[in-house]
Amino acid sequence: MNAILPNPQLAVLRRRTDPHLEWLCAQIARNRFLPVPPQERQFIGDGDFRAIGAEFLRHFVRLGGLRPDHRVLEIGCGIGRMALPLTQYLDSAYDGIDIVLDGIRWCAETITPAYPSFRFHHLDVANGLYNPDGRLDGGAAALPFAAGGYDFVLLTSVVTHLRTAETARYAAEIARVLKPGGRCFLSLFLVDATARAGMAKGAARPPFPDAPGPELLADPANPNAAVAYDEAFLLDLFAAHGLHLARPVLHGHWSGRADAENFQDLLVLQKGDAA
Q: Is the CB of residue 247 less than 8 Å from the CB of residue 237?
């Protein structure tokens, strides 16, 4: 579901960002020595694998406040699209976890030997789209990490495939593993009044039908395919676990917003009150 930004919007970001960060992201996007998984093993969307990862590294730093010394946890690391650019930025440790075993195997075999501080873990949670035979219930699963161990947790297009009970469980676990003052970066679909207006006009992609919520399903027959959440509900859910907005929501153009810089909505939360 993630898409690289159109060129005019990229130009806007480049004028706002740090020159060294922009140079690094450009180098990553065209670095042919960074491995890319075979096309038949990719299960996380289309687009240029390296370029999308580089674009999100820019988001993590510019919007999320990620620093090289931060210890990072990625929930839903897939097959390494975000991990690979992070190998070029982080000086600290990274843990990635995903429910798709093949993605974890590729990352462990390809990334960890070159970057030993990058570790990958399989969590066999059931999901109708990605892991229908999983042993664990996502509404009760625990992350296998110690409390307070991470400065930065990221989830790119993960909540877009989770039902309410699973999202609530992850919110609790994110709060548990974050250090005080730590941040969580999410890309997702949030439904506010503007999004509802776009949905009513048929401008939303995915075409979520308008409904009270708190979750909205693009395809009720395949509920994990694409899930949106009422924005106020989701913010309250995370706030109940001590995770509050670190900056205003950056809304995406999935809902028909013509001036948005990105596809999905981008959300940055902080454990405890934001400064």
A: no
